[in-house]
Amino acid sequence: MPKSFEDKSKTVLTTFESCNRDQQNEILIRLLLKCQPLQLRFLYAELKPLLAVDFVAYLPRELTERIFYYLSPSDLCKIACCNKLWRERSNHDPIWQNLCISKGWSSYGSDLMIERPFSPNAGTTATSPRYIAPDTPSNLTPVCKWKDVYMRAHHLDNNWITGKYTVIPVLKGHKEQVTALDSNHKVIVSGSADGTVRVWDIFTYQCLHIFQDHTDSVTCLQIKDNIVVSGCADSILRVYDVKTGRLLDTLMGHNRGVDSVCFDGKTIVSASSDKTIRVWLYHSGKCVHILRGHQDDIEFLTMYKNMAVSTSWDSTLKLWHLRRGICVHTLQGHSEVVYCCQFDDNIIVSGGGDGLIKIWDTESGYCRQTLAGHTGEVYCLQYNSEVIASGSSDSTVRLWNLQGICLNVMREHIGVVRCLCIWGPRIITGGDRKKIVVWDAKTGRKLNVAHRNPSLLHKLWVNDTRLITASPESPGSITVLSYW
After folding, report:
1. At 68, which CATH number?
2. 484: exposed, middle or buried (C-beta count within 10 Å: 0-12, 13-18, 19+)?
3. Which of 13, 102, 271, 481 is a Cys-bridge partner for 298, taking CB atoms 3.0 to 4.6 Å apart?
4. What is the arithmetic mean of pLDDT over 364-392?
5. pLDDT in tens, 423-457
6. Pairwise CA distance, residues 171 & 204, whole Å
7. Does 403 fall in a domain?
8. Which residue from 276, 282, 364 is spatially nearest to 325, judged by alpha carbons?
């Protein structure tokens, strides 16, 4: 009677076990040589899981974490799903902190951990910006701090890209148009043609103080820490403490209305319709310099370290040394009024009514580049270490590199582009026809459009989580979009 398969296999295994290791190896080689290709493939598939080695279990923890250090966030999330040990090794603060730094999110280590959404009890919808932290099973260690920061920051970044925000109830109270707007990330400060300055809590959006000492329209203001300096059409600057609501100082000296003010915490610089710029010491209230030179009204004033640049309807820019009280350079090149400007130690970038943008050398005053392309007045511009963004009455936003090459012409606005802001990887622009547009700062690609404003928009303030706008229409109102 022939033997069954079980008997045959038992005989083979018994014979195999009775041999020594060398003999067993020889038997295996002979068996493999007798196998067909499909049988070898089947054998490989069966052996592969048995030969796999979990290197994380054998390598020192420090070496494993160093390997994980080179992985992308998506790869780290995938390996965290492999098993408990891999999750623990990838759940390591230095790994995720480095990823946050590479994204420019290191400042979120404290900000997003304490900030709460405007309606924390509200449910989430497809357009809700609210972040809900994932639950961690009780048998696993909690998500490390910097991984949590990364997840929150990624969620916030995605809200900006996809246009997920909450519209805060409109801040009302001014009887006339809002003429000035600023924030220190804790409060919003607004000035109005009704002669008042209002201070709003940026988290609760309640009006904390109303400053009513002005005798005419408030034309400009700037806040630093808890101190706000306001300029008025009555020619007087006033200094307030937004925490206590007290008037700290009154600065008198201009002969006509104050049009622009800059404040860095130590020095106050003001420009007036009397065509002068005054430099004041904050702590004493003393005017230390009166700067003269413009032949027409001063349009714009900006400050950087111990320097200031003023632009004028006389088509020039002037670079001033504030400590010495002298004009360092008079920059001539525009053929019409210069509306906007930004500068640092190396360059001065200006935009004018002639539709041109000019890049000047700060040290020499020499015009390095003239950027032509806009067909209307350039009302706003801003630059960072890589690009210059400009907005114009021709309804376009243009993106340039610092060598003066136009990278993109961004078309979405209808009417004048009145204000813009480069914030991290995004450009936010505002103008007529209820449009706020969010763009990618590197490519100029349109990310989304928000239609949440009155027909005109002339003031814009942006931080990581909020977009704050004001309209020149009466009565004055302030709109806040929260992306968190």
Report:
1. 1.20.1280.50
2. buried
3. 271
4. 96
5. 989 999 998 877 899 999 999 999 999 865 556 77
6. 11
7. yes
8. 276
